[in-house]
User: Fold this.
Amino acid sequence: MRKEICLSGSGGQGLILAGIILAEAAGIHDGFEVVQTQSYGPEARGGASRSEVVISDEKIDYPKIIKSDILLALTQKACYKYIENLKEDGILLVDSTDVTKIPPFKGRVYQHPITEDAIKVLGNQLVANIISLGILVQISEIVSKEALKQALQTRIPERIRDLNKKALEYGFQIGENLINIT
Amino acid sequence: MSEKKRLEKILQGNEACVEGAILAGVRFFAGYPITPASEIAEGMAQRLPALGGVFMQMEDEIASMAATIGASLAGAKAMTASSGPGICLKQENIGFAAICEVPCVIVNSQRGGPSTGLPTKPAQADVMQARWGTHGDHPMIVLSPSDVTEVLNITIKAINFSEKYRTPVMLMLDEVISHMREKVIIPPKEEIEIIDRKKPTVVKEDFLPYKADDDLVPPMANFGSGYRYHVTGLVHNEKGYPTSNNKEIDYLIRRLTNKVELNKKDIILEEKYLLDDARVAIVAYGSVARAAERTVKLAREKGIKVGLLKLITLWPFSDDTISQLASQVDLIVVPEMNLGQMVREVQRAAEGKCRVISYSRVDGELINPLEILAKIEEEGK
Amino acid sequence: MNNEIVQYLRKEMFPNIWCPGCGIGIVLGAMLRAIHSIGWEKDEIVMVSGIGCSSRITGYVDFNTMNTTHGRALPYATGIKMANPSLKVITVMGDGDCAAIGGNHFIHAARRNIDITAIIINNMIYGMTGGQYSPLTPTGKIGTTAPYGNIDQCFDLTSLAVSAGASYVARSSVFDVIQATRFIKKAFLKKGFSVVEIISDCPISFGRINRMRTPAEMLEWIKSITVPKNKWEKLTPEEKEGKLPTGEFLDINIPEYSKNYQEVCIRAQQGGKDK
Assistant:
């Protein structure tokens, strides 16, 4: 089993942290082999940002994505760019706050206004990454929900942990709804 | 997590480098901010003070290298880290460490060059600079790990080699390895081999600071230990004093290089993967070696007998292994994130016994397994 | 030679490489007298130099010594001091070494106020390479690379050291060796970054090309251009032209770097991550 997950958007959306949390859940709490890598430009905010996670039940040789099994796209630009490398039977999750046009794709597609909910429901745009993780894990079962919760516990500083826990739970719920709709 | 005997952590390559250095006994680090190496300095700034060690952010890369060497002479295991532009500036003092035989480790998290180049993207184009960057004939041990666990272990090796052979050791990472996160098992202290520099055993009056033992390495006295001596970047005799005596000059310059050559067996680290029946060999190092490992599997699925020689030690070079390999296989492919640097060494060591070709990628992306496979298939036609 | 300082010399290294009449030996004598009167042990002293005539001093003294790369004495010394703060760390530099190629290190060693003494032997020329002009060559003087006269402005190292954050800053000359020795001793004892600039003569590479053929002529010239600080302050700008004030410009007690670093260690240890 080798699963490749691409988390994409722009700098400052917390995608690298999301990748780290996912990697920690898979590697430390679910006992898989895991590699997290990233591609980023010189700018700390804005610009294209991509975080890659490869999860496997055996030692991982090539650490980067060859062809994604799962793609999260928080921006329209990222969606256009990375869908080309998504497997035909893969999973696409987009933040419909920004992604309004879905390129032709045969696999499973899930759309939800993630950033909008982060602001309206949780009152903080910055937790869009964690909501995304919740949805992504709920719909793909790529790691266990329990592992993801534990990883969040260790990787998120205490003062913002409760907010992020809420965001994660909210993501699980949205994921559940999306499955039921499809 | 803490209940487990073996501590597992998700660590970034740069964090694993810090972890390894601290386990190996590094207690002095001087650095200067630079992408993609800065997390090493940040980690050291966080960790060293609590251990009574010293972290210093110096005014520039030159000063970082100088302070590292000074600290080593005063008895600390010392390290610095940078990337291409900074490594260029360090070269002057790396030469000083080489001729004065001062143990120190220089980490180069490689990015695209020349000059400012590609600050956030990987390359392997500094491997010749690592060997020959400072002027004059000099020894250099250069190591190149390819996964995060290996970063930790090879950092320990780098510190050990520098102490054992009294020479600067360069640890080559790249942007991919530096920033990649993987599961790492932190080895318990008692399982780690730690090597400290040899101390003089003679009485102070008889101490000759540059008189080598049979392994060609002189014992080293720390400043302040009572063995007073002179350290100079001028060519010097066994007493440590500048010399213009031809015999003494010749002896020092040859000994510096020979001490690494003589101990090659200990220093050369390499890994062989499915080479026994291989007709094609890939010779790779660093992050590219991981792509190559996948290529081997993909090729074998297609019935092409490909194997991998992964070089961990880049310098001194694996002449003997390459020579043997060249007698066995029909083709050696050397994929590198440069325009063909180590491939020249492979060609030299292969002595024409088989074809040796280069596969280059210099666009800031890690070479992927399918590209190497395509190259092999194309060459096999 | 005075017996009390001979014990600090590596006699097997003599004769030295300096030209007859060179001022470096005078500064060496002053440093050794200062060390002797303080009573430091040879084992606890580290003397670090860069490159140039003055930097050869470290080869001749029986301490822990280091002759490093051009301009880099201070960062090497910084590493030594921080790795073992109990050592007495002294750097000896020339004017080109300290003010040109090593200028940035000089500023930042002063900024940190690290407990190192910087002795700068200012003979206003690159002597070892044959007389090229340095940042401390007076405007108008001749160098082999300024054959029509030096147009560069001359650096004032003491003002630089004062504004950069040093604890002790003084200037003397080889003409007034008693004063020089006194300043050097105070600098050695100062806990913090201490600077003593000593105006020295280079009869071969500076003197000959600037019509001062003998060491005595050069010393006369040094005497004529150095003015005690209190007199200097009363001079008009025109009178100050081509002259240098001597004396102590700064003598303060401020927090020292290696001490401050101990505080960092304590803070980190109380944080308690690595025990």
About this structure: Residues 216 and 359 of chain B are 38 Å apart (CA to CA).
